[in-house]
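Weekly structure sync, notes
Attendees: PL (lead), two postdocs, one rotation student
Agenda item 3: pending single-chain targets
PL asked that the sequence for the first pending target be pasted directly into the notes so everyone works from the same version. It is reproduced below exactly as submitted, 274 residues in total.
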Amino acid sequence: MNMISTGTTDMDDFLVRALIGGCGVAAVAGPLGAFVVWRRMAFFGGTLSHSALLGVALGFLLGLNLNVAIFAVCAVVAILLVSLSRPTGLSNDTLLGILAHASLAFGLIALSVMETQRVDLISYLFGDVLATTVSDITLIYGGGAVVAGVLVFLWRPLLAATVDEELAKVEGVPVQAVNLGFMLLLAVTVALAMKVVGILLVTSLIIIPAATARRLSATPEQMAVWAGVVGCIAVAGGLWASMQFDTPSGPSIVAAAFALFVLATVFPALKRWN
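Predicted structure, written out during the meeting:
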């Protein structure tokens, strides 16, 4: 009887940790995702997620903290995008394609040459939120607090640059610095979200809740808040589905987010139709 009770308690504990950690990431990813949707930067999020694999490989090779390594690589990608866009004369989507596939290729090469250390690549690609620890939660909420604080500070200039970049420059907004700051915030968020949904699915946790919130909001501030709320609901729903149907937790969270997006899209359309 004691063994059953202890096992149930342990299961409850890891589910609670997974829920707390996942909601922490979703609450930060949602408001940033609002700007990604407004700016049509979904491909940039995908580029960061691809480059995160190179961060994982370098972290193992150099003995660095994986979150630090992922952020460093994502930050370099963001800086390269800003610095190369004008000198090369290439469009952003072309540069993003080059950086995404180059970083992914180098990451796979780096992983292939590691002979002394085996890497559980599946957990990094698709996440392992059920293995969230107290230290992971501390990192998520500490990093999330920094991201949220910087985002509040950048909110008005970032919103101005999003609405009309040229007008924002005329009004004295340092557009390039603000854009770089936003990209670095996304880099931090990608590093934090890797544990929850993994490298391949992290962009979906940023974009889908924000796209859903767009259907429910009348102002940018409302959309930012609703995006975080929708993301937390998706985390809770995905974890429930994962436990009920024995499905992978990361993909289940993304599937739950997509289901919420479909509901938010279909119900208003049905109401208008009626």
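Discussion points:
- DSSP finds ten helices and no strands in the chain.
- Residues 187 and 209 are 18 Å apart (CA to CA).
Action: rotation student to compare against the earlier draft before next sync.
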